[in-house]
Design a protein that fits this description.
Blueprint lengths: L2 H10 L1 H10 L8 H13 L11 H11 L5 H4 L4 H10 L7 E5 L14 E5 L6 E4 L7 H12 L4 H4 L11 E5 L12 E7 L2 E9 L6 E5 L26 H12 L5 E8 L2 E8 L11 H9 L11
Antiparallel strand pairs: 1-4, 2-3, 2-4, 5-6, 5-8, 6-7, 8-9
Helix pairs in contact: 1-2, 2-3, 4-10
């Protein structure tokens, strides 16, 4: 979309402009609750009920304000969570980390293998993938990573656990499924107090992105979520499904709602990340499933309410 087209869209929907300037940190003066009410109206298209939340997105935003479990600071830190996961279920499920730095100028490519991934630990989207050092545009990667290091994800979505995470760049192993030419298949298991209830299967993340949904027994679930197309080609039940669900339960028990991401590489099951606020609670979901998923969140589990 060109600059003129974007300007027209913002003129037609001025609240969307609020979402944009929030990314730039221009709305920091507003209290969290007021900010979230405006963002919800801008991106979901209706007013949020924080006094008696029912839907999935409403409850996620309520949890942002009221569930202040200090463990969450570790869970959202993509670097720190690796050790936490290794301690909980075993290091064999965690991808290898080669090094980490607090500034891009300190990154030393000579100490890294030919293939690797650079990513920031404190936000979403700060990623640079190196498939071959000889053709890797390191300068472009540094520009992306530097921009993310200088941003604080909290101010846009008010997901409080991100606010005080020390920004770092980490280098980790490059994961690849040799049987696929469309990139990794990403399995995202949404759990409620340790109970896996919904599995998202993302394919073609860097091309024709699709997402299919399944319940814990691998029955297809029809959901319209965030406008991501559903592939007409169903996903074969992974052989590691039972282990994936078992480990997801271990990692998410005691938390009202959290999504646990996995990759299946042959016989290897690899942990991806934990997400406390799926889509920041701001991705539109069809009303039926918004209420269904919302009914699975027990707000009494919020930290301090037990």
């Amino acid at each position: 979309m060109g600059k003129i087209s974007k300007a027209v869209q913002y003129m037609k929907h001025p609240l969307r402009a609020y979402s944009l300037i929030s990314k730039w940190g221009w709305t920091r003066c507003l209290p969290d609750e007021i900010h979230l009410k405006i963002m919800y109206r801008a991106l979901i298209g209706k007013n949020i009920n924080l006094d008696n939340p029912k839907g999935f997105n409403e409850k996620l935003n309520w949890l942002k304000l009221h569930d202040r479990n200090p463990l969450y600071n570790i869970l959202v830190d993509k670097l720190a969570v690796k050790q936490w996961v290794a301690d909980k279920i075993g290091a064999q499920y965690v991808s290898e980390t080669y090094d980490s730095w607090d500034r891009v100028e300190s990154i030393n490519l000579e100490n890294l293998p030919n293939q690797f991934v650079l990513k920031t630990n404190h936000d979403s989207g700060g990623v640079a993938i190196c498939r071959d050092k000889s053709s890797f545009d390191f300068d472009a990667a540094k520009r992306v990573l530097r921009r993310h290091l200088n941003s604080n994800y909290f101010w846009w979505t008010r997901e409080w656990p991100y606010k005080d995470v020390t920004p770092m760049v980490m280098a980790e192993e490059y994961l690849e499924d040799e049987g696929l030419d469309t990139g990794l298949v990403d399995y995202k298991v949404t759990c409620f107090n340790g109970n896996p209830r919904l599995i998202e299967v993302h394919r073609g993340r860097f091309g024709e992105h699709t997402c299919n949904y399944y319940d814990q027994d691998w029955n297809p679930v029809s959901i319209d979520w965030a406008g991501i197309p559903v592939s007409p080609v169903e996903v074969e039940r992974p052989e590691k499904l039972e282990k994936m669900l078992e480990l997801s339960s271990v990692l998410t028990r005691g938390i009202p709602q959290v999504r646990c991401d996995w990759y299946v590489l042959g016989d290897r099951l690899v942990f991806g990340e934990l997400t406390l606020f799926n889509g920041a609670g701001l991705d539109p979901i069809d009303e039926k499933n918004d209420l269904w998923l919302g009914s699975l969140i027990d707000l009494s589990l919020a930290y301090g309410d037990q």
